[in-house]
Amino acid sequence: MKNKAKALKAAALLIVVTLTTGVSLSMQRGVFVPAPLTAHAADNESYTEGKSGPLTYRKYSDHAEISSCEMSATSAEIPESIEGVPVTMIGMYAFQISSIKSVTIPNSVKEIGHYAFNNCSALTSLTIPDSVEKVGIRAFENCTSLEKIEFPDHIIEWNSKVFEGTPWIASQREKSPLVIVNGALLDGDKCKGEVKLTSDIKYIASGAFQRNMDITSVVVPSSVTKLCDNVFFYCTNLASAELSGVTLIDSMAFCGCEKLTDLKLSGRLTDIDERAFSDITSNATITFYGSRETWEKVNKPSDDPFLRNAKMIFDENHTEINDVIAGDLNMDGEFNVTDLLLLQKWLLGDKNAELKNRKAADYTKDEVLDVFDLVLMRKAVLEK
Questions:
Q1: pLDDT tens track for 91-103
Q2: d(CA 234, CA 254)
Q3: Which own/partner pairs from 245-248 qualify as long-range (CB within 8 Å, at least 24 positions apart)?
Q4: Which CATH number applies to 183-320: 3.90.1150.10, 3.40.50.880, 3.80.10.10, 3.30.70.790?
Q5: Which residue of 1, 19, 120, 142 has the fewest CB atoms within a 10 Å radius of its CB?
Q6: What is the rounded distance in angstroms from the CA atom of residue 154 to the CA atom of residue 138?
Q7: For 366-384, what is the mean pLDDT?
Q8: How far is Cα 212 from Cα 235, in angstroms, rounded to an integer?
Q9: 36 pLDDT exceeds 60?
Q10: Which contiguous run of DSSP H or E holds residue 181?
């Protein structure tokens, strides 16, 4: 009885710690590791619980989310709607450590939560529908049979190490040190030395390079406007970084990068998270591609040691768009039909048609903009 009482007391203490510190625990191969606890927008709303086959769901006023699955279930088909509302989310830990081998995700799901399929060792293939916009931390980690994945043709907001420990990520790393899916860089774990990312990358996943001790410098193209949390977390040999188009540097993006001494920042930068450069003691030179006045307007921590001790250089003459995206005439970071129509108007003599990046329109590489470039651009748009 005493042992049982001690066990209950320990369990109660664990619950208290979880609720008061915002830390939840997940099990990975018998080892408990901390995971951030995030709240869904609807968590403050009332809901009703119900069952759909092996699935348990929570139904809110305007949507439903899958909260858990029977551990013994080997297959599951998530319904597109429940009681008249769409199923928009697969909740945190919903399928974790279950026996699921196959799952059908409907085209209503917008988010797959943190650790949703973590340690589902029997899961062999996955189709992520077009509706998905966000995938949580380590959502498919240690799915040791997951070899085949079908992705939507748009950029998803990927969190840290979504596919870590899967055959799929292992095979992708063998093909290239940069794992890129539809313009999103998911993983740079195998990169070494100087890393220059290309302009076809529009998004870098959270934690993409975290704890990579082999990279020494990185150039992020102007097509990437947000540096997500933990991207270079404890990359302890990273000495130089250029962020030519980044407007936001998120939490712990460079945390623990103790050798970072050369940092180049975009003049379009607006926000630096208060923990972006935590655990860095090095004295750096920061080159800001803009004026001192513009730098002063950046929303940034006032007492950060890294920023406070840095030598500031203000370069107002720097041309930030170093990476020319073919066809991106209006310099909005992507090539689409808007650029095609812009060139067409310009060729027709429309005085309001401004080509901000003429070089991007020269598809024939003859340094002349004409109808031949327009034809090639149209073909490129249709092939996208």
A1: 999 999 999 999 9
A2: 7
A3: 245/220, 245/221, 245/320, 245/321, 245/333, 246/220, 247/271, 248/272, 248/273
A4: 3.80.10.10
A5: 1
A6: 20
A7: 84
A8: 5
A9: no
A10: strand 179-181
Q: Structure tokens of 313? A: 């250089």
Whether 38-175 and 183-320 share one fold: the answer is: yes
Give the pLDDT score at 358.
Answer: 76
Instruction: For the chain, give every domain's residue range.
Output: 38-175, 183-320, 337-383
How far is Cα 207 from Cα 383, in angstroms, rounded to an integer?
32
CA distances to 121, 203, 249, 375, 383 from 29, in Å: 11, 31, 34, 56, 45
> Which of 3.40.50.2000, 2.40.30.10, 3.80.10.10, 3.40.50.1370 would CATH assign to domain 38-175?
3.80.10.10
Q: Please count the other Cβ atoms lying within 10 Å of the Cβ belonging to residue 330.
A: 17
Q: Which of 59, 121, 77, 79 is nearest to 96 (CA)?
A: 121
217-231 pLDDT, tens digit per residue, is 999 998 899 999 999
Q: Calculate helix-pair angle for 337-347, 371-383, nearest 10 degrees.
A: 170
